[in-house]
Write a structure and sequence with these properties.
168 residues, alpha+beta, Pnp Oxidase, Chain A, ten-stranded antiparallel sheet, three-stranded antiparallel sheet, 3 helices, oxidoreductase, Pyridox_Oxase_N, oxidoreductase activity, acting on the CH-CH group of donors
Length: 168
């Protein structure tokens, strides 16, 4: 994947006067370090579905996996547009991130093998995956893996309060 530098904008309507835009490089560091993400998908009847999951940041995109029969996988089969969020879950300090994009299934064996290694390096041996049949296996069948390259992203700083928008 080609890494693109986004257009960065500070929205002064939603911050303190001394706020500055968060650098994309800082946001990338936070995405790489975050342990938990919240995935928002859309159910067939249009209602939202939100669930926590693990994800890794690699080569300019977030990657996550899910069981093929899980609600999020079924939602993605109908509508691949998603939002992934992560942050510090605190009112003061830190930065919360929102990533909007399209979830694209990853099936290449070499790419999946590299991602499985990243999962285990980040989350430990508990999250060891084998690659088989175009997905991760770990005891409960094949889990599809998805890539979400940011289309638009937001950073909500809280010391001082700020809102940065990155457009890709």
């Amino acid at each position: 994947m080609t890494l693109k530098e986004p257009r960065t904008e500070l929205d002064t309507r939603y911050g303190e006067p001394e706020a500055t835009a968060t650098a994309w490089t800082e946001a990338v560091g936070l995405l790489a370090e975050a342990e938990l993400f919240w995935l928002s998908t859309v159910r067939p009847d249009g209602r939202p579905h939100v669930t926590p999951l693990l994800a890794v940041w690699a080569d300019g995109a977030l990657y996550f996996c899910t069981g093929a029969a899980e609600r999020k996988a079924m939602n993605l089969a109908r509508n691949p547009e998603v939002v992934l969020t992560t942050g510090v879950n605190a009112l003061h300090g830190g930065c919360d991130l929102v990533i909007e994009g399209t979830a694209v299934r990853v099936t290449g064996h070499s790419r999946l093998t590299a991602l499985a290694k990243l999962w285990e390096a980040k989350y430990g041996a508990e999250w060891h995956f084998e690659v088989q049949d175009g997905g991760f296996t770990g005891g409960q069948g094949v889990a599809p893996v998805f890539e979400v390259a940011p289309r638009t992203a937001f950073g909500f700083g809280k010391a001082p309060y700020s809102q940065t928008r990155w457009q890709f």
